[in-house]
Amino acid sequence: MKPSLQLKLSQHLTLTPQLQQSIRLLQLSTLELNQELERFLQDNPLLEREEDNEEAPAQAATPTAETPPTPEVPEFDASSPPSSEGGADDFDDVHPDMPEVPDVGAEPAREAMDEPEWVDEGSYSGSGGNADGEDNDFPQVASGGPSLREHLMWQLNIANLPQRDKQLSAIIVDSLDDDGYFKQDLAELAEMLPAEMEADADDLQIALRHVQQLEPAGVGARTLAECLQLQLEAMPEDLPCRAEALVVVKSHLDALASRDYARLKKLLRCEDDLLREVQRLITSLNPRPGLSFSKEEARYVVADVIVRKIKGAWVASLNPDAMPKLRINRMYADILSRNRDSSFQQLSGQLQEAKWLIKNVQQRFDTILRVSQCIVDRQRHFFEHGEVAMRPLVLREIAEILGLHESTVSRVTTQKFMLTPRGIFELKYFFGSHVSTETGGACSATAIRALIKQLVGEEDSRRPLSDSQISEILGKQGIVVARRTIAKYRESLQILPVNLRKTL
Fold first, then answer.
1. What is the share, in percent, of the chain residues with pLDDT greater than 90?
2. Does 108 sit behind a cis peptide bond, omega within 30 degrees of 0 on the bond before it?
3. Which tens digit of pLDDT belongs to each residue from 29-38?
4. What is the pLDDT of residue 317?
5. SS3 for 438?
6. SS3 category, 460
7. pLDDT tens-digit profile of 113-160?
8. Cα 316 from chain centre
9. Which of 54, 218, 274, 408 has minimal Cβ neighbours within 10 Å of its Cβ?
């Protein structure tokens, strides 16, 4: 074979570092985005936050008649929606709890610089930058109350008990779970104790009784029945229905859970009124007495988009509080503009990376706004009438309208939230499957869930609706849904079955 040269043309897609960064930033939540930006700010000296209070001294000067005060205008704000002339009087049907979206002015003129090209691309402005100051160096953590163990140990320390009983009771307290239950076997716990304590299961049983006398009532119980029994025993003996409630809790708790009222009336030899009071007393007890002492960190959601009704139309706008304010460090940029030698090559690369990041962050919020506005346009009936008016919607439909890939829409709608007059929702909430109707249309699964919730809320508690009955009612409205589908939607709404919803 003779060697030969061939010229071949081909096309292939290459993911540049800038494109990879854009995709990564797009799928991040607001919290993850801020964490990612903090990493960039620490590693890249060319990138900095644009603080709101930098020009405060200049603005603090007393205005005169010759120089009227001018409002401060941000350099760039991607949160501005499509332009609409008019002021505050143009807004109607605004939810009172929703934050006001500030008006955004035009971009001010910039001073002439050596290289204006990096200035135009080197700033991304929104609200949410942290102001300089020592107060922001440390997180403000709200002090919580005592834990369950601390609360119980405090009671043991002031109790009139022998020191040995206090030690064994402290061991019982350390063995409680977060709900206040004692799930460990006493014999196994006795074997784990040091030999010098000379404690057996009987000694631990006595210590357990001491713990069960502490507050909150029901702590130290081994079962749900014992927890409810301890709470009832702590109540006054002359409390109405207390004796009957103790009988039910000790021996017939399963019958009460299954709503077998006929059996309970026969066992207690009582009428409906008395059994109703017994049920009310038992359901008022706390099945998890230690839960109130648990210290779970609250997680707050910052909405990326705010939906408001403007001139009769629903408009989505970016939330300024969720948007970072980034810009190029002007001092380093001036140095680079005057020095082009190889010693500043690394700094030039960091300048380009900073430009990419600012552009990608801007593109991220622009894409979120486009997708959000398209969702609002497709689901405008939801904002007017609620969940029952939710229409079927899939990611492909939004992708085709905006000319985006379906995976891009999926990234945008993940962990991004929308603040509306009806509450705050994840963007994925507005997407869902559909069920065909008799007229040839489609009904959203969200709307069907809302209808099920509405029917259950309006039902007679003495004769609750079964899944088959709900299916028949929806069928009369033209929505054909199988009984199994009704059961699946009901379980997703955490609605009990028909036998557990029945009351006296």
1. 20
2. no
3. 888 888 888 8
4. 93
5. coil
6. strand
7. 344 344 444 455 554 444 444 444 444 444 567 888 899 999 998 888
8. 20
9. 54
CA distance 280 to 245: 10
d(CA 295, CA 78): 38
Of 72 and 148, the structure prediction assigns the larger pLDDT to: 148
Cα angle: 106, vertex 112, 116; to 5 degrees: 80
CA 129 to CA 363: how far, in whole Å? 18
Q: Residue holding tokens 């969720």? A: 322
For residues 480 and 463, what is the distance between their CA atoms, to the nearest angstrom? Answer: 23
**129 vs 294: CA distance, rounded Å:** 33
Measured between alpha carbons, how far apart are the two ends of the chain, in Å?
A: 95
As a whole number of angstroms, the distance between CA 485 and CA 476 comes to 16
- CA 355, chain centre distance (Å): 32
DSSP labels for 225-266? HHHHHHHHHTS-TTSTTHHHHHHHHHH-HHHHHTT-HHHHHH
| CA separation for the pair 348, 364 (Å, rounded) | 24
Calpha distance 199→164 (Å, rounded): 10
Which of 45-59, 201-215, 488-502 ranks highest by mean pLDDT? 201-215
Assign 13 to helix, strand or coil.
coil
- DSSP 3-state of 404: coil
Rounded Cα distance between 429 and 303, Å, is 14
Tokens of 122: 């080197």
Per-residue pLDDT tens for 377-436? 999 999 998 888 888 888 999 999 999 999 999 999 988 999 999 999 999 999 877 676
Residue 299 DSSP SS3: coil
Handedness of CA 304, 85, 63, 58 (dihedral sign): positive
| CA-based nearest residue to 332, from 346, 351, 345, 349 | 351
The residue type of 203 is D
- Computed from CA positions of residues 262, 268, 274, 280, in that sequence, does the dihedral angle turn out positive or negative? negative
Partnered with residue 432 across adjacent β-strands are: 393
> What is the helix (H) or strand (E) element at residue 165, kind and residue range?
helix 163-174
Q: Which amino acid is at 151?
A: H
- Average of per-residue pLDDT values in the chain: 78
Is the distance from CB of 499 to CB of 461 less than 8 angstroms? no
Residue 461 half-sphere exposure, CB side, CA atoms within 13 Å?
4
Residue 144 has what pLDDT?
A: 61
Instruction: Determine how many CB atoms are found less than 10 A away from the CB of residue 223.
Output: 12
Please spell the DSSP secondary structure of 407-432, one letter per residue: HHHHHHHSS-EEEETTEEEEGGGG-B
CA angle 361, 367, 368 (to 5 degrees): 90
Query: What is the chain's alpha carbon radius of gyration, rounded to the nearest angstrom?
Result: 33
Q: Residue type at 142?
A: A
